[in-house]
Hints:
Chain B: InterPro entries: ABC-Tungstate_binding, PBP_domain. The complex is a heterodimer. By secondary structure, chain A is an all-alpha fold.
Amino acid sequence: MNTITEGLLSAAKLVVTLDPDLVEISLRSLRVTLTALVVASIIAIPLGTVLAIQRFRYRRTVIALLNAFMGLPPVVVGLVIYVLLSRAGPLGVLGLLFTPTAMVIAQVVIITPLIASVTHQAMRDLWADYHDLLISLNATKRQRIMTLIYDGRRTLLTAVLAGFGRAIGEVGAIMIVGGNIEHATRVLTTAIALETGKGDFALALGLGFVLIGMAIAVNLAIHALSGTEREGRW
Amino acid sequence: MTRPILALTAIATLFGAQTQAEEMKMAVTTSFENSGLADVLLPAIKTDLDIDLQLLVVGTGQAIELGNNGDVDAVLVHSRAAEEAFVASGNGTHRREIMYNDFVLIGPNTDPASIAQTETAAGALQAIAAVEAEFVSRGDDSGTHKAELGLWKTAELDPATFGPWYKAVGAGMGAALNTASGLNAYILADRASWLNFGNKGDLALLFAGDPALFNQYAYIPVSPEAHPGVRNDLAMKLEGWLVSDAAKDLIEAYEIGGEPLFVFNAAAE
């Protein structure tokens, strides 16, 4: 109980004084995760929608794989990406290891299946409702996909927020590919792991509360901007 | 016109994207980072050499692996056998001793194995094994872990035969200390990590001072022949600085709670 109070106090102190290190690592956390989220959404939302409306031979296998990959262990993703990006590895010439870009790549791999899977689930139900209408209107495949994405945008928002939640709190993969380098690749989660290692639980908890606060703020901001919960519009 | 540029500059500054100094990556052990010495050395390196030294804080095993893959420009670690193998493999150019600190035996302040009264580190470990008091081992192939295994060997005991009182946690120094604190168990730690550790609980420093516990740090640049991508020029500049009087003064003046931590022993070439 005492440590938790200390953690809250240290979180308050960090936020009130706008501690420069805290601001730096929080902004980096946001930048890495939001970039990964945009990239993953661009891949996952069309992919999930296509899987809902398109029938092809290995569709079931792809869906099963996608669902399984929702549970990819981040530390394994991190290790595989480390091996690929290492100077001794196949993509070593790109020099991406221990950069924020490597962290973005790891997060994209982790959250794309999650977003695609939730998208597919939502789109399948929506497609059942829209199927006859869109077929009778003789809509092209592209129009069908765009209609579904537009009308399913609120569920998609949930999918994207789920992806955000998994990415912002992730530590195993970005620790390996980012390296937790001060002023270069240190983010909130890796800083928390570091302070825990030093036994400074109050500061670690403080950073944790900042992270949770940031996740809440981002969720509220996205909801406010998209106006999903406005009166008379559900 | 100027406003968008200003905004861009502000964004670049916020994200730390622009730096004038050259960047160099060095893998160091958790015990070095936990000592806090890096906070003293890094700003001086930046001022004197204009190098932005980026530290990858990992165990000795992983540090040398990063060197083997050419992912860092140099390593600063403390495990002689692993260092010599690293140089022999051709991935490191040469080994330069910089400084040493020492390991200490930490345990519950009630000291059930009475190791505070033993003469040698090996004797202390034998006392712990005799009463089968809980002992936390790093178990992560790090320099500290290798030092601990060496001490068991000197004590003529084999951890592989130990019962459940011997817990190999496979974690860094801080995490292992947290575990020891939670279990109220014995553990071998480097003095710096122990002094800086914030969650001591009922643990206390029980045994220190045996020369077998000295912990030599060595600097090894990664070979530019084996890994053309590494910045050997910066690594050599840094080596020159680490063995200089400037580094010596900073290292010897570094104290925690009035206790000096490191002894500088780099030999002039």
